[in-house]
Design a protein that fits this description.
Length: about 425
């Protein structure tokens, strides 16, 4: 690092000695002969104190020139200070201004959401937004750790695809030279091929849904983690999922205490998230909803209010299993005892965050798969490669997809998924 720069997060290793930090001014307070600078460097926040009588005149004057988001190198002595949030304070000895920033558009006063979204490239500097992005990074770390430690291999499915995975209604279309192509909605079909090659695999990448829905839970571009496992059946698939989600939660609790505090997250609700998770069937969910005054019939899909009503009965995520075959994707395996339902599950997060995982056992029988293709009017030509998987050594297999942004929203306790991703793509928002 250039000229021995320290990071704010590491100041505890430099107690009572001098450090030099590259940083921005977050906020400033002055009381005549002392200036209090709130500094941030991305790794953390620290208060720096400039005492007029203790510093050369030019240092005092430089401090006076600093405005919100001015950039600088600060030199100072690290002092332990139990009153400060970080536990440390900096006694300033030198200031080199890189740039005095003027008219920073995001002031400490309240701004509307649209205004903040238009300034998302700057908004991410705020303590709250920083905390969310740090937790997002930790969740990704925990995800990779979980699968890497359990014999899974990371596999990257393509982003540009010739056909759909989750139905044709919300595909983004583009030209691929003279052919038509679509942005991927899910890498699952390719992950099934990869599972037949590598056994246990997972992907982590962006997926796209041209959904004209403007809800708190929908993004147009979102990131999905999609594990796929050869020789794993429905019940085992659920066990992997509940262990996976418990691992993510524990990892965030262990590593992001400060960030959860910035967000004022009630962590007692998270501490409880330990496998096993409760399971109910679609049938049970329907009769519960009907008893509680919801107008819903067997065969209909759940909306957000239904999911929330069901989730309210539990303080952990709940699996809803065995949905009607009719309303689920073509590749899901029917229950051998009851072919009108499939061996699938959606995991519904507590506290009203809705579905965070969709998964299932897949059809492994080549004859049934061909039948499904006919019923769903899918082109056997376009999917020949996928049908091959059932022809050359087919095996029972299962997998699932976790939506990263909904998971971040839940863990951080946010009202809306728009704050869970650095630059959200929403209906009517492609800027910045
Ligand atoms: O339930 P979905 O559509 O499942 C699949 O795509 C399967 N092929 C996954 C698999 O089995 N490999 O999507 C999976 C998850 C949802 O549970 C939700 O968390 C998230 O992806 N998701 C969205 N997140 C944000 N915005 C959207 N528009 C989303 N659509 C789905
Ligand atoms: Mg789903």
């Amino acid at each position: 690092m250039s000229r021995n720069l320290s990071m704010i997060r590491d100041v505890d290793q430099h107690r009572d000695s001098e450090v030099r930090i590259g940083c921005w001014l977050h906020n400033k307070r002055s009381s005549g002969k002392i200036q209090f600078l709130q500094l941030r460097d991305g790794s953390g926040f620290i208060q720096a104190v400039v005492v007029k009588s203790d510093v050369p005149e030019e240092v005092w004057e430089s401090a006076g020139k600093l405005t919100q988001e001015s950039s600088l190198y600060v030199t100072g002595n690290v002092r332990e200070d139990t009153r400060s949030k970080s536990g440390y304070e900096l006694t300033v000895t030198g200031i080199e201004i890189i740039q005095v920033s003027s008219d920073y558009p995001i002031t400490p006063k309240e701004h509307g959401v649209d205004y903040l979204m238009d300034h998302r490239h700057l908004w991410i500097r705020s303590p709250r937004q920083r905390a969310i992005l740090v937790i997002r990074a930790q969740i990704i770390r925990a995800i990779q750790q979980f699968f890497d430690e359990r014999g899974f291999h990371l596999v990257d499915p393509p982003i540009l695809t010739p056909s759909s995975c989750e139905g044709t209604t919300n595909l983004f279309h583009t030209k691929y030279f003279d052919e038509d192509a679509f942005l991927t909605q899910s890498g699952q079909l390719y992950m099934e091929a990869a599972a037949m090659a590598l056994g246990r695999v997972y992907s982590f990448g962006p997926t796209f849904r041209a959904e004209k829905s403007k809800t708190r839970r929908h993004l147009i571009e979102f990131w999905m983690i999609e594990p796929e496992m050869a020789f794993i059946t429905h019940e085992e698939n659920l066990e992997v999922q509940e262990q996976f989600v418990s691992h993510i939660i524990q990892s965030v609790l262990d590593n992001c205490g400060k960030e959860l505090e910035v967000l004022e997250r009630d962590t007692s609700k998270l501490k409880n998230i330990q496998a096993p998770f409760p399971r109910i069937t679609y049938d049970e969910a329907i009769s519960f909803l009907q008893k509680n005054g919801h107008e819903i019939e067997w065969g209909e899909d759940f909306g957000a209010p239904h999911e929330t009503a069901i989730a309210e009965n539990y303080d952990k995520p709940v699996f809803i299993t065995h949905y009607p075959t009719e309303i689920k994707a073509f590749y899901m395996k029917p229950d051998p005892n009851r072919p009108e339902v499939v061996l699938c599950a959606d995991m519904i997060a507590p506290e009203g965050y809705g579905e965070i995982i969709g998964g299932s056992q897949r059809i492994d029988d080549p004859v049934l798969m061909e039948e499904r293709f006919t019923e769903h009017e899918l082109s056997k030509e376009a999917y020949q490669w996928y049908l091959d998987l059932r022809k050359y050594g087919t095996v029972p297999h299962s997998g699932f997809g976790l939506g990263l942004e909904r998971t971040v929203a839940w863990i951080c306790g946010l009202d809306h998924v728009r704050e869970t991703i650095p630059f959200p793509r929403l209906l009517y928002r492609l800027y910045p």
